[in-house]
Amino acid sequence: MGKAYRAGILLVLLLLPGTFVGAAAPAPATKLTSEGSWDWEAGTFTLTLRTPLPIDTEATPPRRRFLAEQDAESHRQQEFVRRAGDLPVSSGKTLAEAMAADPAVEAGVAQVGEKLKFVSSRVDPDYTTLEMVWSASLWSDLGPFLFDAAEANPVPSLIRWAPSRDFSGLVIFAMGDMNWMGTGLKARWTPSLAFRLLDPQGEVLFDPSMSDPTFFQKWGEAGVSLGKFSEDRWRDRIGFDPLRIVARAVWGARPGDLVLAQGDWDRILSRDANRRLLAEGRILVLYGPFPDYTVRPNPDSAIDVEKPPLENIPQAPVETPPPAKTSGGE
Known about the structure:
Elements: H1 2-15, E1 33-39, E2 44-52, H2 61-84, H3 95-101, H4 103-114, E3 117-123, E4 129-137, H5 143-146, E5 170-175, E6 178-180, E7 185-187, E8 197-198, E9 204-206, H6 213-219, E10 223-226, H7 235-238, E11 243-246, E12 249-251, E13 257-259, H8 262-269, H9 272-279, E14 283-288
Parallel strand pairs: 5-11, 5-14, 6-12, 8-13, 10-14
Antiparallel strand pairs: 1-2, 2-4, 3-4, 6-7, 8-9, 12-13
Helix pairs in contact: 2-4, 3-4
């Protein structure tokens, strides 16, 4: 009787779908993932969120996508504050460190997270994951509450005379490994929202407090270009007659500040028009590894391909006709 009873219970469990035996537990949903990135040349911060579409056979595909978009929207502000914290604000701190030191900065970043610009929304071919992208301006969105001075501090002037003239902009060549002052090491310059310019003695001659707020919110303290560049795309910023100089070293807790030669400082600070270039952010910094300007042969060019030697095909000799006989008058 006991064996028959237990056999009957086991048979019922096997036949009942969704119970203890033979029921497949639903796979746990993948958690939402986020990614933050920034483009110094474009001056934008991009937030990317990826979330799985709900596994619900009764919902239509458009509704599944709508529910996933609602889920991503609910996490947008939180993920923006978290991912934007990795952004370097200066050579000494990141945005996360600035938010930890000043609650007003954290509140400002949270406000930016509420009004991010929508970029795109797409679903993968398998219709399992939704990807949504938003963006914010590094200068007009994040700049105002990071550098909220109503009026810029004056750029120091050079009292003594120095040979110089007015320039339309400033181009700083900061490529390759440079001396990292105070460390005995070499490092490459790393961009940040706001950096400082120093003289060879380590005195700061320009910092973000000297930037005109109107121009800073327009295009930041300086434009940056990685590797090779074309000046044409920067004409509105540096003009047609910029002063081109070479950075001598880097400085800071992180190698984010630049050291310029004293002679270059004399040419900049001795004239009011050139000092305004700094305040208005008419600066372009070229950074990264040294570009390779070597012209290499083009494998697709017929000119560069070695041709086989010409084959000398023997030709049949040309027979010359005998001279015509002339009749004599004998």
